[in-house]
Write a structure and sequence with these properties.
The structure is a homodimer. The longest helix of chain A has 32 residues, at 148-179. The model of chain A has no long low-confidence stretch (mean pLDDT 91). Chain A is built from 10 helices and no strands. The N and C termini of chain A lie far apart (51 Å). The first copy, chain A, has helices at 28-42, 49-55, 63-66, 70-82, 95-112, 128-144, 148-179, 183-200, 203-211, 218-244. The radius of gyration of chain A is 22 Å and the shape is flat. Chain A is mainly α. Among the domains of chain A are: 22-67, Arc Repressor Mutant, subunit A (Orthogonal Bundle); 85-180 and 217-244, Tetracycline Repressor, domain 2 (Orthogonal Bundle), CATH 1.10.357. Chains A and B meet through α6, α7, α8, α9 and α10 of A and α6, α7, α8, α9 and α10 of B. Chain A binds a DNA duplex through residues 3, 18-22, 24-26, 48-50, 53, 58-62, 64-66, 69-70.
Chain lengths: 251, 251
DNA sequence: AAAGCCACTCGCACAGTGTTCGAGCCCACT
DNA sequence: AGTGGGCTCGAACACTGTGCGAGTGGCTTT
């Protein structure tokens, strides 16, 4: 595999595929799939080229024929994650529901593969699955009435919300998973630290009173938080549509 | 430094500080600051314990007296990034402006230190700076009229937007920086790939027509995208306030 | 049928990583 | 004067990503 050039031309997505004869024992798809399994099972630390090689029953360096380097492998894996997201066609539902389904899909795909979250900021997501996702969303928002730059912005903010929410959620879930503790146990551990901080931060007590005691099902709360934000965001987009286009927001 | 236990009690933030005598040549603050400089200058790959040691004129393993491990060092660095964010007091401005300033601050802090973005999903941000940030935002939103769970959700969605937007922005900026190309050059490189994809994705052409030609100042466009989303989000929150509290949104 | 090309695999080696361990230093307190 | 402990550090271990060059097998061309 030729070394990735410094110019963008060397990107996985632009590089022409390799010629092929016979039936190679390894394939790029197979490698990416196996890498995802390792990542899902053991997190980013669980993926090394050597382990991936042995998992595939081949030498570690054989992988480099099919993939330029580990970075590129991860880029491919991220696009595969995005491939799991379903976005409805404009005719199927109204834009609000379509957008919700899309954002929900992105959030849950990222939570299913939390290792992908930390990779999103590294390379622009321009793989085929990312593009398909983008184009579907654009179709949805065109049908809603968005035009010009607002179209681009609207799709971007929807994805941003899903990514940001998934990031925050993943942080908490990873702590729960890592320590193996329940939410209550952690709350108990953190309590004295919070007490100490509360003296510096007067509003903190008020906040705790407002939100009440820590719930024992964090998953549900996290989902509520995400859903609340999504509804507010969609409300804001709808409002913009009403004020900036002749028609109301549509069916 | 005692090894980080698996329970949450072992977290940097909960562990009692070390006793101290004499004047040690190294300090935790110094180490974190130096680490941030390396990260800012050369990205995540630029930070190794050995390099950090030599930068501080000390042995690499000396660092382990002040910091449990590299992971914890990064956790400290992330909180330091959050410490750069200014959030106004409720009395200073209306809640909308205050929230905007806060979100802008988070976005720019993350863009100043892009390495922090990928770390946000790893551990919950409960460092002192993160807490101060949260409490300030809570104060702002209490003044706005948010109560109960909605208070918590509103602060969360604001941060999520900033994080998500910074993630997407950072992805693009890192590509520009890495290749050293201009936006136009990259667009030219990617063009044939896009043409190929366009045949599968019919709406893609429509999208390009809508958004027009690629602008030569991506920074401005990215900022616009972020700002558009923020305004929509704040609109949505304001709408919620109007429908769920007696008072209007306030001054 | 022979020859050669080329897709593909892989062992070795290199430079570098995070982290542990134990030895040591030197200051503060008894 | 002596001892404890905060603090530093060198050596070592297991492991990482990856370049290089040799090797192998099947297809294509002569």
């Amino acid at each position: 595999m030729p070394p990735r050039s410094d110019s963008f031309t060397g990107s996985v997505w632009l590089r022409p595929p390799r010629a092929q004869t016979g039936q190679p024992t390894l394939s790029r798809e197979q490698i990416v799939r196996a890498a995802m399994e390792l990542l899902d099972a053991e997190g980013p630390a669980g993926l090394s080229m050597r382990r991936l090689g042995t998992k595939l029953g081949s030498g570690a360096t054989s992988l480099y024929w099919h993939v330029a380097n580990k970075d590129e492998l991860l880029e491919l894996a991220v696009d595969e994650v995005l491939g799991e997201i379903y976005v409805p066609e404009p005719g199927d539902t109204g834009w609000r529901i379509g957008a919700s389904i899309s954002a929900n899909g992105m959030r849950s795909a990222l939570l299913r593969h939390p290792w992908a979250i930390g990779l999103l900021g590294l390379h622009p997501t321009i793989g085929p699955n990312a593009m398909r996702l983008g184009e579907r969303l654009v179709a949805l928002f065109i049908a809603a009435g968005f035009r010009g730059m607002a179209l681009s912005h609207a799709t971007a903010v929807l994805n941003s919300h899903a990514i940001g929410a998934a990031t925050s959620e993943s942080a908490i879930k990873s702590a729960l998973k890592r320590t193996g503790q329940t939410y209550e146990q952690i709350a108990e551990d953190v309590e004295p630290y919070l007490q100490r901080l509360a003296s510096d931060n007067p509003n903190y007590e008020k906040w705790r009173q407002e939100t009440g005691p820590m719930p024992n099902d964090p998953d549900q709360v996290l989902e509520e938080t995400y859903a609340f934000g999504l509804e507010r965001l969609l409300d804001g987009l709808e409002l913009w549509l009403e004020n900036n286009t002749g028609k109301p927001s549509g069916p």
